[in-house]
Amino acid sequence: MDTTRAARAHILCTSIALLLVLIASCLTYIFLPKVPGCKICAINASAIASIFRHQLSQEQLLLTACNHTSDSRLIWEDEWEEKRKDDESILDHNKTWIILPKEGVYLVYVQVNFNLQPQKNSTSKVEVKFQVDFDDGDREEIFSAAHDTRVVNENFQDAMLNTFLLMHMNKASNRLSVRAFPSDQLNYQPRPFSTYITIIKWADN
Hints:
Jelly Rolls, 2 helices, about 40% strand, TNF_dom, Tumour_necrosis_fac-like_dom, transmembrane, Si:dkey-220k22.3, transmembrane helix
């Protein structure tokens, strides 16, 4: 019960954070001066407005990473799998690709935690990064990425990377996956969640 309440509270907080990020992004685009020479295109304001008028969808996903493949692709567990019907699986058979069967606009939050191993040299540096791969059924490409460089000493250190995404899924075959490096130093221990992804359907097409 405590885990369920913590998960719901986490989803609520993440939803609020995603909304603030979306508003900030729109305001930044509108008010920041445009770089000379850039082509300015008309924006469909009604489409943006419809996103903000839309009530928050009940379609919310929470997946936690439990392992990784040889190519550093994260393996996921669906935290709310028991609430879905047998034919509503959102993971492929390898549990590495997240499938979103319904078209729409999705808010996505990805958090990846690393437990960096001690190094004898106090000036040793480790680059941590992850990338979100997107597959539309025709081709696979890198949609987004995050990285950082950490100085590692003689003690274990935690390193966290995260990113917010706004993704427009326009095909039933759309899916996404996450790869993280160095994969041998990923942290899967829940606190209550460590490495996870939250997906919220914000609006229809």
